[in-house]
């Protein structure tokens, strides 16, 4: 890890948190992603080797802990107390981005949007136990024949700012 060589809390924190992809990895952990594959799904353009590097750096810095899975291979990645304490930082950065940064169609990734929705807003406890198949249509086309959730299935509303600034509520706080 590169260092600024300064006796300054902001410089030291930036050495850990200001690397490319790191805030997004932390966001994914706050959304409940706790396996390598789940974290990687939330950063589809990040290389696997870079994700390995970032997870190792965060573990060495005490932001996450990596524990072996109870069954099978691999590890679970969990936020430590220091990592959970970053919720206000990530939320503030998201709110700043919502206010000051332009987000347009070039920044749209439908795969990420679906991943984030399933991680943050979907109330999994309300889903039916059996397999359910749904269909949908592209925006602008007829909704005739589109499926709707079964009765009783609902989306959870997060509490401050969605991932790319669509809502004013914060899903990160719900995860802590």
TrEMBL record:
Residues 166-176 have a biased composition (Basic and acidic residues). The keyword Membrane does not apply. Keywords: DNA-binding, Transcription, Transcription regulation. This is Winged helix-turn-helix transcriptional regulator. Pfam families: HxlR. Residues 134-176 are annotated as: Disordered. Residues 8-105 form the HTH hxlR-type domain.
